[in-house]
Write a structure and sequence with these properties.
The protein is of the alpha/beta class. It has a single domain, classed as Rossmann fold (3-Layer(aba) Sandwich). Helix content is about 40%, strand content about 20%. The chain has 5 helices and 6 strands. The strands form 2 sheets. Strands 4-3-5-6 form a 4-stranded parallel beta sheet, with helices on both faces. Strands 1-2 form a two-stranded antiparallel sheet. The longest helix has 17 residues. The two termini are about 25 Å apart. The mean pLDDT is about 95.
């Protein structure tokens, strides 16, 4: 399976596809997890973007939908950003340090259809969702 199909011409996704084709095994990200270094290749990143983008689309998210991103700085963050664009939706990055009351206002103002979050921020996202008129779906990248 091709990480990002060529028929998906999108200027936001093209650099990812091109880089994955040019040097698929080249390391794109490195991070520490449980005291060891973990790496993600260019092809691995493109594949994760595609899989999450297809999952977002399968969940009914697409063009015009706003997807809030509420998580710490980690490799899943840019994967989620590009996957949101892959699904055709609009990314709404949010500061995870905000209180649930403030997050709820952002959900409402953006008319968020979904919030992609992490285990670390799941409780804040759920609390904000309860206060929000938009009632976005919660999607946890760690679930």
């Amino acid at each position: 399976m091709e990480p990002l199909p060529k028929e998906r011409e999108d200027p936001l996704l093209e650099p990812i596809r091109r880089n994955a084709e040019a040097a698929p095994a080249k390391t794109l990200f490195e991070w520490l997890a449980d005291g060891r270094t973990v790496a993600m290749s260019r092809a691995g990143f493109a594949g994760r973007v595609r899989r999450l983008g297809e999952a977002l689309a399968a969940a009914g998210l697409g063009p015009g939908d706003r997807v809030a991103i509420l998580m710490e700085n980690r490799p899943a963050w840019p994967v989620t950003l590009f996957a949101t664009w892959y699904a055709g939706a609009v990314a709404v990055p949010l500061d995870p340090q905000l209180a649930p009351e403030r997050l709820a206002r952002f959900f409402d103002h953006a008319e968020a259809a979904a919030v992609v979050t992490s285990a670390r921020h799941r409780a804040a996202a759920a609390a904000a969702r309860r206060r929000s008129a938009a009632r976005p779906r919660l999607l946890d990248v760690d679930a």
